[in-house]
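Z., the sequence and structure:
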Amino acid sequence: MKNYILVLCLAVLFIACTKDEKQESKNIYKEEIKTVFAVLPKQKDENTNRVFNATASSNHQIKLSFKVQGNITYLKSKIGDEVKKADLIAKLDSKPYELKVSQVNYALSEAKASTQNAKSNYERVKKLYVNQNASASDIDNAKASFNAASAKVQNIKKELEYLKLQLSYTKLYAPQNAYISLKYVQENENISAGTPIVLLSDKVVDEVIVQVPESYINKLKKDDNVKVVFDSLDKNRVFSAKISEVSKFASDATKTYKVVVKLINSSKLIRSGMSASVFFKDVNSFKKGIFYIPSNSVLNDKSGYFVYLLQKDNNNYLIKKQSVEVGKLRKKGYEIISGLDSNSLVLKAGMSEVYENMRVQISNLDDLGK
């Protein structure tokens, strides 16, 4: 009887232990179903833009200057004034030039009188020579004197023409309808020939000048479409434009290249010198199959870069290691050039807590639209 009771107790104990082990095994299995967060790769935007600071500039800007030196007696224009073609901009003191014209006019009168006398003498000597009352040398000398006097008259006429031209240069006129953008001098200043007086700009400012670094200049070409926004105007107002010039040489000071952008539809509100932002489309930014994923989702080892993918397995997901080719690290994350597609479920965080073929659950599937 005792033996029977002992066997019965051992059987009950064995069954209880077996149940406990099974329950413990189930608990361990449940603990291994870790909850994780996933992320879907975002395709790189084909409309990515590069933005550079720029300055509005008139299509035609002219530095007006006098062709002669002198003292400025008239310069009433102010910066911002509108001028029309042929308007008087500035005048120099013309008295020194008028005096020279007067002196040369007097010299011309004397030369003409001398020429007339030489001509009369030449005509007289010719008659004497015909009557054999003058020698051949006499007529040659008379003719030479007449020719010399005539040449002197022509030279003085040219000098007078030049002086009158210089006199006309003492007045400076607007060559076109424009605005006064800058004034370089003031009234009563003595200036030399070629000294800038004012800067004239077109009434419509339709160009923007931008300096582009060497790392980007080869991505631009003439007639590329760009967008321009002016800092002082409505930020929502975007001006369409085209690249009209691309410099082949870098600036010695900034080591950047000058690019001229032509506005398709300008505005009277745009003034020369206004700050602007030019949006160049990055033509190399979009390639089919390039994606962004968070930088902390990308790992590397001796084999290279990789991510953890979440592969469907019945009601759960399995962790799978996936090698990827990465591009540049941007604010949005790493560029993934190959190894992923738009439907790849990538482990977002907690990479150190998972391993290959580990079974997990995804808590944010609804947010991902899965």
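Residues 95-130 form the longest helix (36 residues). The CA atoms of residues 201 and 237 lie 24 Å apart.

Let me know what you think.
H.
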